[in-house]
Design brief:
Shape: globular
Low-confidence stretches: none
Distance between the termini: 45 Å
Oligomer: single chain
Strand order of the largest sheet: 1-2-3-10-5-8
Number of strands: 13
Radius of gyration: 15 Å
């Protein structure tokens, strides 16, 4: 059935792949639409950030396009050019290969939610701008020069 009831989707929580090197991201709750609904070429999640939480460490993808739509509350988009507040209905886009590390932060006192949609590419690498880390398709992390990271 094409209509999705978010309340019926399994939830996920946890840190991004760089948390051991960049620190805790705070409390959030995610619902994986694509995984639950069988989408193979498109990733889609609804994520809720609690006050003080961040969506990830600043990152960019070399082969994955991303689009973010704020669904509730107020979030702060942090990217190479600084930080900008985003409210309900506002959209940010991140084309694959553009070295603009980004993340969303909830600097408010209320929970805030967003929809994130991205293309899926099995060869995609995620680059963590502030951490000198690259997440490879096999799940391994290296420094930008290919060496092993140390905590």
């Amino acid at each position: 059935m094409p209509k999705v009831d978010l309340t019926q989707l399994p939830t996920f929580q946890g840190a991004d792949a760089a948390a051991a090197y960049g620190g805790d991201l705070g409390a959030y709750l995610g619902r994986a639409i694509s995984g639950a609904m069988g989408l193979a070429h498109l990733g889609a999640n609804v994520e809720t950030l609690m006050p003080g939480a961040s969506s990830s460490h600043r990152h960019w993808h070399d082969r994955t396009d991303e689009i973010v739509v704020v669904l509730s509350g107020t979030l702060v988009l942090v990217e190479e050019d600084g930080a900008v507040e985003m409210g309900v209905g506002e959209i940010a886009v991140f084309p694959a290969g553009v070295e603009n590390g980004h993340c969303l932060q909830n600097r408010s006192s209320d929970a805030a939610s967003f929809l994130v949609v991205g293309s899926r590419d099995d060869a995609d690498r995620c680059h963590y701008s502030d951490l000198d880390l690259v997440l490879h398709p096999d799940g391994s992390l290296t420094r930008k020069d290919g060496s092993a990271p140390s905590t």
